[in-house]
Design a protein that fits this description.
This protein is of the alpha+beta class and 251 residues long. The protein has helices at 7-26, 57-65, 68-71, 84-87, 223-244, and strands spanning 37-41, 93-97, 101-106, 114-119, 136-142, 145-151, 171-181, 185-195, 204-212. It has a single domain, classed as Lipocalin, CATH 2.40.128. The protein has a nine-stranded antiparallel β-sheet with strand order 4-3-2-1-9-8-7-6-5. It starts with 6 loop residues before the first helix and ends in a 7-residue tail after the last helix. Residues 1-29 have low confidence and may be disordered.
Length: 251
């Protein structure tokens, strides 16, 4: 584009810049899908695992010997961990979203709320993050779908009540999008892929549905209260037993 000289050049350039700014304002970048709010998992639509899982021999032996009372962390009020907290179907999911981060909060009947912090467009995942219950995540947008990749989960966590384990190599890929359902209204869909060559001989895939529930409120957990009550009663019973021993029998 050519402009006339002198003041005409300045005026023409200013007009050109103003036109470009108006054009940009009229054609903004596509806004990210808003997942903010509270969602209830739909247990009726949760996809079960295949009847025959591609387990390694070590994983199969672990599941055959699995005893929830001894080996399930939640028995001791420890966290579900990721991705079990997204696979569960009993507790609400609360999402807080900004352009830089998505925060997911799940309040199961365990010791504490489970909080997933997912930076958006924050670069690649670290090579060897410190293992944690919820792992280290990165998210990015593919159109209206939020893609989340998570690594670095503790290998003493399990994936479900049946004791399905994973190793420290677990990599979780989630794809979240919104759907409209004529009966349920707004629905959050989480397509979940689990990659773990040490535990399985293939990729595990499943899907979870969450219905929009703005009035849902998480309940205060009672798991720790029960453990504390058990501890107090155990101490009282031991004290009563000591007091019941005759003085002459006391060493």
């Amino acid at each position: 584009m050519k402009f006339a000289g002198g003041l005409g050049t300045v005026a023409a350039l200013a007009l050109h810049l103003a036109t470009v700014q108006v054009a940009h304002a009229a054609s903004p970048a596509a806004a990210a899908t808003d997942f903010s709010g509270t969602w209830l998992p739909d247990a009726r639509r949760a996809e079960p695992w295949p009847s025959s899982l591609p387990l390694t021999a070590t994983t199969r032996r672990f599941m055959e010997r699995f005893d929830a009372a001894q080996s399930d962390p939640t028995t001791f009020c420890m966290p579900f961990g990721t991705p079990r907290n997204m696979l569960q179907t009993g507790y609400p999911l609360e999402i807080v979203q900004t352009p830089e981060r998505v925060v997911m909060v799940i309040q199961p009947n365990l010791a504490n709320a489970e909080v997933r912090r997912i930076p958006l467009n924050a670069g690649p995942l670290p090579e060897s993050p410190e293992p944690s219950w919820f792992g280290t995540s990165r998210g990015h947008w593919e159109g209206a779908t939020l893609v989340i990749e998570t690594i670095g989960m503790r290998d003493d966590a399990i994936l479900g009540d049946d004791g399905l384990p994973h190793s420290g190599q677990l990599r979780v890929v989630e794809r979240l999008h919104l759907e409209r359902d004529p009966e349920r209204g707004k629905v959050l869909v989480d397509d979940i892929e689990l990659h773990d060559p040490q535990a399985w001989q293939g990729t595990l895939k499943t899907r979870r549905y969450f219905s929009w529930a703005p009035d849902a409120r998480p309940r205060d957990p009672t798991c720790v209260d029960a453990l504390w009550t058990e501890k107090l009663w155990s101490e009282r019973l031991r004290e009563h037993a000591r007091q019941a021993v005759p003085a002459e029998a006391t060493p």
